Amino acid sequence: MTADAPMISGSSVVKLARGVRLHEDPVRGQTVLLAPERAMAVDDIAVAIVQALDGERNLDRIAADFAEKFDAPVEEIAEDVRTFVQELSVRRMLEIVQ
User: Fold this and answer.
1) How far does CA 63 lie from the centroid of its chain?
2) pTM for the structure as a whole
3) Beta strands in the chain (DSSP E)
4) Is the pLDDT assigned to residue 2 strictly greater than 80?
5) Member of which family (predicted)?
6) Chain center to CA of 65
7) For burial by CB atoms within 10 Å, which of 30, 42, 48, 50 has the most?
8) How far apart are CA 87 and CA 62, in angstroms?
9) How far apart (Å, rounded) are the C-alpha atoms in residues 73 and 44?
10) Whether 10 contacts 58, CB under 8 Å
């Protein structure tokens, strides 16, 4: 983690930064997260997380919703969500709402 990247926790409420969006790349057959001057290939799990970043629910709530939906341990999902969101923060693809 870089010194200028904010710390992400379960209580963080985030959304994609302005100008960042999901894009289907039909040539490569994959989904990418596009931002000004950069892109990041994402898998289906990452797409689900990105779509859940609505700027209203905190990361713990998102993890709990996923745990219920996929019948999986909430602690494991919460760690995966926070790790991925922290990476988006480092890449300056997020806006922290709260």
Assistant:
1) 11
2) 0.90
3) 13-16, 21-25, 30-35, 38-42, 54-58, 94-96
4) no
5) Belongs to the PqqD family.
6) 14
7) 50
8) 17
9) 19
10) yes
How large is the angle between the packed helices 44-52 and 74-90, nearest 10 degrees? 80
Looking at residue 58, its amino acid is: N
pLDDT at 3 over 70: no
Backbone angles phi, psi at 87, to 5 degrees: -65, -40
Both tokens of residue 59? 């990361």
What gap in Å lies between CA 71 and CA 76, rounded to an integer? 11
> Degrees (nearest 5) of the Cα angle 86, 87, 90?
90
Beta bridge partners of 32: 23, 41
Distance between CA 40 and CA 60 in Å, rounded? Answer: 24
Give the helix/strand (H/E) hosting 94.
strand 94-96
Residue with tokens 């039909």: 26
